Each structure stands twice: as C-alpha cells, then as structure tokens.
Fold this sequence. Notes:
6-stranded mixed sheet, 33% helix
Amino acid sequence: MDGIDEARALLAASFGDVRMAVEIIAGHGVISPLAEIDISNVAEFDASLDQAVKDSPSGIIINLSGMTYLDSSAVKAMLRARRNLTNPGSVLCIATGPGLARTILGFAHMDLIPGVLLFDSLDAALQHMPPSPLPQEGR
C-alpha cells in the first residue's frame, strides 16, 4: 500500500507488563502487542484498546502477528473494543499471521462476529479499512 511508511508515527508505549507498539498508520489506530496477554496484564491491553477506539472511531487494527500467547481475557478485551466502535460501518480488523492467534480466535469464532474481520497480515488489514477521518501523518 503506497504511503504506509510515510504515514507511520510510532508511539512506543509500555503498559505495565504488556509491551505494545501503538501506531497511527494511514490514519488508523494500530495496536501491536509484543508479548503475551493474559489475565495478569489484560487491563493494560484493554486500556490501550479503549484509547485507540476513542482516537480512531471508524475502526482499529489489532496486530497479533508477533504474539506468543493470549488467553480468553484478551479475546474478551477485543470483543469489548468491537462493541465500543459505534460509528456506522466501523470495523475491528485483526491481523493474526498464521500462528497461535489465528487458532485461538478461530476457536472463539471471532470471524463470525459482525464487524470483526481477520486477516493474515497487517497490510491486508490496512487495505480493508474504511477511509479515515484522522489526519495522515507525514503528509
């Protein structure tokens, strides 16, 4: 996708025990947890999702391609984020990669929830996002 690299504004953030990259790419909020998410640290993940929903009401992307582990509390946090996306046509795109995250979200039937879309890569998720009302970074 053209302009992705120019539109990238990395805001490295550390939320307790959860290491995440929080980015604006092509005007959309992208949350990329860089370690495991479970009941012991899901509150920090939830807080970052809440902020992303506020900042990008047309939809957010959760990039799970680097995940080593996630449990049902992480799935529940993602479902809350989807519920909080209230703009018409808003979507929660989840880039899973081929590994563990895809398997867990498949067991949870996330692909059957309206407004939740699973993708194999971040680029594929970005291509599906609706036009963003957010200003494009680096433009």
